Amino acid sequence: MFKYKVLKAFEVAASKIIPLDSEEENTIFYFYQPDRQFFKHLNNHYQQNLSSLYYDKKEANYFFNKGENEKGYITLLLLYPREREEAEFEHMVDSLLILQREHSVIIITEDKEDFVLEFLKDCQKELKNEEILVNFINAELAKMTEDAQKIRDEIIKLETSINENGPTRSLFTQVLQLKKYLISLSLTYDSDDKIIEFFKREKNALNLDENGHSGIIKLEENLDSLKKLTQAYNRYLASLDTMVNNLSSFRLNTIMKTLTEISIVLTIPTMIYGFWGINLKLPFEEFSFGFLLVLAISLALSGAVWYWMGKIKLL
């Protein structure tokens, strides 16, 4: 039976770090909101530069050390996309650090994550120590899938906006943001794929099962599903982007066509007014309201040209 403890990392003193490995029962420690001092305690105790791993690494990493007692321990750094916030779009991907020891598992995230808490509650059952790691990563992949599926709602909003308002300037910004989001997801999943390869390579040393609900194959299938989901959204967004560009080009062509037609029609009264403006004897000069006749002629000819262009489908 596993037990778990949820702690604010910056409130943990050095004296509480040392007993983490001396638990008689298998225990999962979940730390959130870590600070530099907390990582300094961990670095000193485990003789690893965990702070650099957590803060500076931009891709998934893993370490496996057998240790003197041949039991060994595992250090994993995974990346996962946090729920997208417009103001913090560039900081969407977050680090998730896992330290697995003989009788304990340490999980560290920047903020308190609901999916971690849900996983801990579900762990109140008999699990082998090696199953915890795979099950937790599966839980993380489920969170990533849920986060990725939110793109569908964004795309539906874009489609609705296109149908109602056409290709507006804000629409291009939204499409660009979603593209950047999908690129970030793809890089995240590709990076986490290194962890799967590590499990497959070290399955015997780590005593990991390849099949079953907690097996490596299931983990690989879940990550592959995430990749395919992201690729499908990426292709659909690319087609949507093409449609937006086509609509913009069509709208621009329509505007230019209308302006050209108006220019052609207005050329006729311009020619007529220019003709009557020459310094020679012209018809209607002796009439008091001759300018009205000229105006009527120009309007009649312009109307006739407009009708003719519409008749031959130029308008």
**Strand residue percentage:** 5-15%
* Overall body shape: rod-shaped
Order of helices and strands: EHEHHEEEEHHHHHH
Number of helical segments with 4 or more residues: 9
Per-chain topology:
Elements (H helix, E strand, L loop, with lengths): L2 E6 L5 H4 L9 E6 L3 H11 L3 H7 L4 E5 L7 E9 L11 E8 L3 E6 L4 H9 L6 H37 L3 H33 L1 H4 L9 H61 L13 H22 L4
Parallel strand pairs: 1-2, 2-6
Antiparallel strand pairs: 3-4, 4-5, 5-6
Entry summary:
The chain has 315 residues and is an alpha/beta fold. The protein has 9 helices and 6 strands; from the N terminus they run βαβααββββαααααα.
General description of the model:
With 315 residues, the chain is of the alpha/beta class. It is 60% helix and 13% strand. The chain contains nine helices and six strands; from the N terminus they run βαβααββββαααααα. The protein has a six-stranded mixed beta sheet with strand order 1-2-6-5-4-3, sandwiched between helices. Strand 5 and strand 6 (104-109) form a beta hairpin. It starts with a strand and ends with a helix.
Q: Which key phrases capture this entry?
A:
13% strand, 315 residues, alpha/beta, six-stranded mixed beta sheet, 9 helices
